[in-house]
Design brief:
about 240 residues; Immunoglobulin-like; 2 domains; 4-stranded antiparallel sheet; 4 helices; 12 strands
Length: about 240
């Protein structure tokens, strides 16, 4: 009976045995590595969902000169994104859109898919992943009203510390310029009462421009106002000159 040898000196039977053993070892290794791979996918997906949340609302940890600087898509547009695509591409000629708000990735769908290659689900308040077979959720905000319906209130006084009084209150206009949620801009208008108190509501988060206009002299003073989520922002405005 003849015995056949390979060029490396192994018999065919020996090669088959080696291949079988290697397959068994590879199978065992894969089973041992699978939990590690799955954990890595979970961690990657949770990080991506957090980044999507920050792209929508801004990173609350970014400050400059004591003021928050990042309010994401909502801060620029004044509304929630209609889709994940709106975070990397202007959703329709919006003049207030200043994205992209996150990295697109290596291709057009990377940022929209979890670590299992399944598209994220976006609701008004959360980003969800179902690629693992269970639902992973990252809460963007407890309620959209916290992002879209805030208030500023305050008091305005003259440079000498006096309020406008009943006679001059109607001569002062406070105008807040902010995004309207559809790619344009709108104005919140208020006049102070005799004590100088005023209030403007229904505001999205973000850094907005507040103009104080003294009508008789056409004098205008501008302030930057940071509207924070779920808070009534208190302002004490002092005229830089004796206007009344």
């Amino acid at each position: 009976m003849k015995t056949f040898y390979s060029q490396n000196g192994f018999t065919v039977v020996e090669l088959v045995i080696v291949i079988i053993i290697m397959g068994i070892i590879a199978g065992v290794a894969m089973r041992q590595l699978q939990p590690t791979i799955e954990n890595s996918r979970y961690e990657q997906t949770l990080r991506e969902m957090e980044n999507i949340g920050w792209a929508i609302t801004g990173n609350p940890n970014l400050y400059s000169d004591g003021a928050r600087t990042d309010f994401g898509y909502v801060g620029d547009v004044g509304g929630m994104p209609p889709s994940l695509d709106a975070l990397v591409a202007n959703p329709g000629g919006f003049t207030t859109w200043k994205g992209p708000y996150m990295d697109r990735g290596l291709n057009a769908t990377d940022f929209k898919e979890d670590a299992w290659g399944v598209t994220y689900l976006l609701s008004d308040t959360a980003v969800r992943s179902v690629g693992s077979g269970e639902t992973l959720s990252h809460t963007v905000v407890a309620s959209t009203s916290l992002l879209l319906s805030n208030t500023i209130e305050g008091v305005i006084i003259n440079a000498d510390g006096t309020p406008p009084g009943a006679l001059l209150a109607d001569s002062i206009v406070l105008r807040l310029d902010y995004p309207d949620g559809s790619g344009g801009r709108m104005f919140g208008i208020a006049s102070p009462d005799a004590s100088g108190a005023f209030s403007i509501g229904g505001l999205p988060v973000g850094n907005h421009t507040l103009s104080m206009i003294y009508i008789p002299d056409h004098d205008t003073v501008q302030y930057t106002v940071s509207v924070l989520p779920g808070r009534t922002q208190r302002l004490d405005l002092v005229s830089p000159a004796d206007l009344w």
